[in-house]
Amino acid sequence: MSLIAGVAAIGGCGLFTADDDYCTAEAAPAIVLEIVDIATNVSPLVPSRITVTDGQFVERYPPAGGTGVVQPQYSFAFERAGRYSILVETPGFLDWTASNIAVSGGKCHVATARIRARLQR
């Protein structure tokens, strides 16, 4: 009986069908951020400190006490609708900010905002 209940519980998560009427079990980020050097259009060679906020909500990369690494993109605020601000601090570059980034919730997941931070020296 538990196997049948388990199948019924996940049946609407898109695991057994590709139908758009079903949601996937994957968590969607509210923000996907790409960071590039405006002069070269490639990621800086040094890691950035990133702060994403929405009111009292704060998410940072790297987390407190952590060491960051350069990545092709960074994801934040999984399954959380809101109105976000982003601060990117990268050694050797001017700080980059964006604000008032609206992310709405959908039927199954948030509508991901894809942001490109173009850093200047």
Number of distinct beta strands: 7
Global geometry: elongated
The largest beta-sheet arranges its strands as 3-2-5-6
Radius of gyration from the CA trace? 18 Å
List the secondary-structure elements in sequence, H or E. HEEEEEEE
- End-to-end Cα distance, whole Å, is 62 Å
- Largest sheet report: 4 strands, antiparallel
Percent of residues in helices comes to under 10%
What fraction of the residues are assigned to beta strands by DSSP?
Answer: 35-45%
How is this fold's topology laid out?
Blueprint: H1 2-10, E1 29-37, E2 49-54, E3 57-61, E4 74-78, E5 82-89, E6 96-103, E7 113-119
Parallel strand pairs: 1-7
Antiparallel strand pairs: 1-4, 2-3, 2-5, 5-6
